[in-house]
Design goal:
Helices cover 41% and strands 22% of the residues. The protein is of the alpha/beta class and 313 residues long. Strands 3, 4, 5, 6, 9, 10 and 11 form a seven-stranded mixed beta sheet that branches. Strand 1 and strand 2 form a beta hairpin. The C terminus is likely disordered.
Length: 313
């Protein structure tokens, strides 16, 4: 039995006539009649009562019609799914996000537009740190990951740069420079620096310390934050100062002010990582969409004058 037999059977049943069914199928009536007879012989059952003006379903035909229609419907859905998957327009996309990445406006904006453009794509998220997301990629628990490079194990990963996010200084309320606008890193020379463990984001961690060295001092290391976003509450508690991605200024923790940093200022780099090999069309589509959007966003950020931004309360 082939799907064409079911299509012929359903067409004749729904039109009640070989002639009308043949017209709907775009074929001649005699070949259609022969195909139905062949199908009946294959089943060992009569499907239609042939009459002078059309046909009627037999009891067997009437019982089989709903199942034939269901099979054809499933066949159509199967074909549509296969085509959607091959074009990267359907499927399940599992996205990993490194610390505080979800606070960067361009990331959720792109994901939202991606879902609106391809509504039959299901997107799920896993928020973690860069090393954990590297493991998740290798274990195929996520399909793509937005990370803070470099990654410790890149042998089996393809890592593409996304953008360099500006950073800001986070100061506790009442700090000597809390009322200032942009500040120099050297103004924080004697303050305990709250920072996350290096293994959670070695690239950004080293960029902060290098910027301090370039500003002429070695920072006093204060309490470690368990993750990047956790630095802000520790600053609010008066345990020190911190340098954070500018997107963290959206965390409106009471007792903290955020200040643009004059050069030399560290940058918080982001990249997107996937397993090396041949990614699925859906993964390739998402990676290219996010890279293009971030490239445009980063270009806009480069034109901004940090000194023109007042302190963020």
């Amino acid at each position: 039995m082939e799907l064409r037999h079911l299509r012929y059977f359903v067409a004749v049943a729904e039109h009640g006539s070989f002639t009308r069914a043949a017209g709907a199928l775009g074929m001649e009536q005699p070949p259609l009649s022969q195909q139905i007879k062949q199908f009946e012989r294959l089943l060992g059952a009569t499907l239609f009562h042939r009459m002078t003006r059309g046909v009627e379903l037999t009891e067997v035909g009437a019982a089989l019609l709903p199942q034939a229609q269901a099979i054809l419907s499933m066949s159509g859905e199967f074909q549509a799914l296969a085509q959607g998957l091959s074009r990267g327009e359907r499927g399940h996309l599992r996205v990993g996000l490194a610390g505080a990445v979800s606070l960067l406006p361009i990331i959720p904006q792109v994901i939202r537009r991606f879902r609106e453009t391809w509504p039959e794509v299901v997107v799920s998220f896993e928020e973690s740190n860069t090393p954990a997301l590297s493991t998740a990629l290798h274990e195929r628990r996520v399909d793509v990951a937005v990370v803070r490079p470099p990654m410790m194990d890149e042998d089996n990963l393809a890592v593409y740069p996304l953008l360099d996010e500006p950073t800001v200084a986070a100061l506790p309320s009442g700090h000597t420079h809390a009322g200032d606008g942009a500040i120099r890193l050297s103004m924080l020379e004697h303050e305990p620096l709250i920072i996350f463990p290096r293994e959670l984001g070695p690239g950004f961690h080293d960029a902060i310390l290098s910027a301090c060295q370039n500003a002429g001092f070695t920072p006093r290391m204060g309490q470690q934050a368990p993750q990047i976003a956790a630095t802000v509450p520790l600053v609010a508690a008066g345990l020190g100062v911190s340098v954070v991605p500018r997107s963290l200024s959206q965390i409106h923790a009471g007792g903290v002010t955020f200040h643009p940093i004059e050069e030399p200022a560290p940058r918080a780099s982001l990249a997107i990582a996937v397993l090396k090999g041949r990614p699925t069309p859906l993964v390739s589509r998402f990676v290219s969409t996010l890279r293009e959007a971030c490239r445009e966003w980063d270009d806009e950020q480069q034109t901004m004058d940090p000194s023109s931004i007042s302190a963020l309360p």
